[in-house]
Amino acid sequence: NEPLAERLRPQTLDDYLSQSHLVGKTGVLTQQLQQGVIASMIFWGPPGTGKTTLANIIANESKRPFYTLSAINSGVKDIRDVIDKAKQSGGLFTTKNPILFIDEIHRFSKSQQDSLLQAVEKGWVTLIGATTENPSFEVIPALLSRCQVYVLNSFGKDDLEALLQRALKEDELLSKRHIKLKETEALIRLSGGDARKLLNLFELIVTSFDEKDKIVITNDVVTKRVQNNTVRYDKTGEQHYD
Predict the structure, then answer these.
(1) For residues 28 and 20, what is the distance between their CA atoms, to the nearest angstrom?
(2) Partners of residue 44 on adjacent β-strands
(3) Spatial separation of the C-alpha atoms in residues 193 and 199, rounded to whole Å
(4) Based on CB atoms within 10 Å of each CB, which residue in 130, 141, 172, 194 is the most buried?
């Protein structure tokens, strides 16, 4: 029952598409992983650019305990509980302190962000925050000064096409269907550079056909079968001003 985007979520850095400035051969995160020293960081970028996936990969490849919180439904008590668990799991004689991943960190209040300061400063946890908003405006200066900010860009055309080809070849469900990807322009346009949205749209179109059908994906087919073609837009967010 998992959506396609979840089934195709990369598990290693080698499988991760896009963001070569961070995870390419000379990327800053690649070098940190090779050296085994990972600083607290904040990933800033639009939805569907791989922020959560990258945090998971960093934890897996560095073999660190991984804790996650969502700023939408976590309070100060939840933060303290996770930090207490992280302190215990980290142990006294290991340099591999646990990773605490906080999604939508810009939604945390000042007091919630304050509750992270000591844990980050003392090295009880390595913080990885994810935000779609400019952290300079949304994250308190004391926390921001303890973190590196890395920008994740929207996926380019080549990356999105590579993602579609991966879905056709590697996904256990789609690889069994008769699918020919003849045109991709409409799919890519509607995705707005959001990899998750692209895969969700692609799956929506494929599942609109009968299982025995031979499917030919063209721009016309995409346009007709996708009713909701609104591009990502948030009038209160930074995209409005861009």
Answers:
(1) 9
(2) 131, 151
(3) 11
(4) 130
Strand partners, 127: 100
Q: Is the confidence at residue 81, as pLDDT, over 50?
A: yes
Partner residues linked to 150 by β-bridges: 43
Runs of H (alpha helix) within 36-105: 51-62, 76-90
Alpha helices in 19-65 (DSSP H): 20-23, 28-35, 51-62
Are 199 and 3 within 8 A, CB to CB? yes
Query: What distance in Å separates the CA atoms of residue 87 and residue 97, rounded to the nearest whole number?
Result: 8
| pLDDT tens column, 195-235 | 999 999 999 999 888 888 899 999 999 998 886 444 444 55
3-state secondary structure the chain: CCCHHHHCCCCCHHHCCCCHHHHCCCCHHHHHHHHCCCCCEEEECCCCCCHHHHHHHHHHHHCCCEEEEECCCCCHHHHHHHHHHHHHHHCCCCCCCCEEEEECHHHCCHHHHHHHHHHHHHCCCEEEEEECCCHHHHCCHHHHCCCEEEECCCCCHHHHHHHHHHHHHHCCCHHHCEEEECCCHHHHHHHCCCHHHHHHHHHHHHHCCCCCCEEEECHHHHHHHCCCCCCCCCCCCHHHHC
